[in-house]
Amino acid sequence: MNMARMAVLICFCGGCGFQDLTLVTSRDAGAPNAPDATNSGLFDRGLVARFFLDEARQGQDPASVSDSATNLQIPIAYAGRDQPSFLTESGHRGLRWVAPGQGGVICRPVQGTPWTALDGEAQATLEAVIDLEFGVTSGSRIVHVGYEEIWTIGLGYMHETFGLVLRINEHQNLREASWPVNLATQGRVVVTAVYDGSAAGESDRTRLYIDGERLGTDRVPPIPQNERIDLVQNQSSLCIGNRAIGERSPDGAIFYAALYRRALSDGEIRTHAQRLRATDDP
Fold first, then answer.
1. Nearest CA among 90, 77, 93, 99 for reference residue 240
2. What is the architecture of the domain spanning 36-278?
3. Which of 226, 259, 271, 275 lies deepest, with the highest CB count within 10 Å?
4. How does residue 154 score in pLDDT terms, banded at 50, 70 and 90?
5. Where are the chain's structural domains?
6. How far is residue 91's CA from residue 40's CA, in Å, rounded to a whole number?
7. Contact in structure between 193 and 208 (CB atoms under 8 Å)
């Protein structure tokens, strides 16, 4: 695959500016691309944020978690001694909430950050390594961008009846797909949710994978082709394991989380699942 860097003058209604672009001459979304700077072995093209959640050992309480893609820190607002708490499970570090629908907030506003690269995109991938027992009926957050009770884009877990849910643009006209998965019986798994507004078929515009294997969708939303994500930059925050105002924690652990501004291919998702099953730390 050939790549070249160049400065391009881009103009919008508000003015013009130079953008440094990396051009990829292959149109194959599954084409090989360089791993991130941590040598994690994970694909880096289109990466918006990546959290290894390995900042501490069990019993330690750091002030923040780090996004390895941007080096930004997200502060942790603890609720009591164990919401959330860092843990090490079979050698994997992560964060655990002990009950659904509680406090313990890990959020940072997206405005003014590189995370806004997701705004206006018609594709996205949300990826997480989790071991969850239960979620609230309205949806415990796994990885989430939104404000107040609104999802601009997010992956959540309700409970064993409704399972995993992907929601987009709730403030406009909620787009939602759900997959009836009882995570309490799954143990530690790699979950990948894909939104691909460019897909010709509606059933391919929302996809969910467990450990690299695609699941059938329980509810397919009538998402118009090429609908774009509206982050509502001046209000939204990027959050892990909760929403900015709390009360939407899961019961369980999150070991890793990432967001992309493109739809990862089946091959990339399988590669990630194999790598993350083995280790979710760099």
1. 77
2. Sandwich (2.60)
3. 259
4. very high
5. 36-278
6. 16
7. yes
DSSP 119: T
pLDDT for the residue 57: 85
| pLDDT tens profile 70-116 | 999 999 999 977 789 999 999 999 999 999 999 999 999 999 999 99
Count CA atoms closer than 13 A to 145's CA, side-chain side: 28
Token pair belonging to 215: 């699941």
pLDDT at 6 over 50: no
What token pair was written down for 191?
A: 């979950």
Cα 186 to chain centroid, rounded: 19
Calculate mean pLDDT across residues 34-57: 82
- Per residue in 255-273, pLDDT tens? 999 999 999 999 999 999 9
Tokens for 229? 């994500």
Q: Please confirm whether the linkage preceding 32 is cis (ω < 30° from 0).
A: no
The DSSP element (H or E) to which 266 belongs, if any, is helix 266-278
The amino acid occupying position 28 is D
Is the Cβ–Cβ distance between 261 and 124 less than 8 Å? yes
**Ranges 29-38, 226-235, 245-254: which has the least confidence:** 29-38
| Beta carbons of 133 and 148 less than 8 angstroms apart | no
CB–CB of 121/109 below 8 Å? no
Structural contact between residues 101 and 251, judged by C-beta atoms closer than 8 angstroms: no
Q: What's the length of the chain?
A: 282
Provide the token pair at 82.
């164990």
Please give the model's pTM, rounded to 2 decimal places. Answer: 0.86
- Helical residues (DSSP H) of 194-260, grouped into ranges: none
Minimal CA–CA distance to 164: which of 187, 134, 204? 134
Task: Report whether 135 contacts 250 (CB < 8 A).
Answer: yes
Choose among 143, 187, 139: nearest CA to 164. 139
SS3 of the chain: helix, strand, coil, percent, to 5: 10, 45, 50
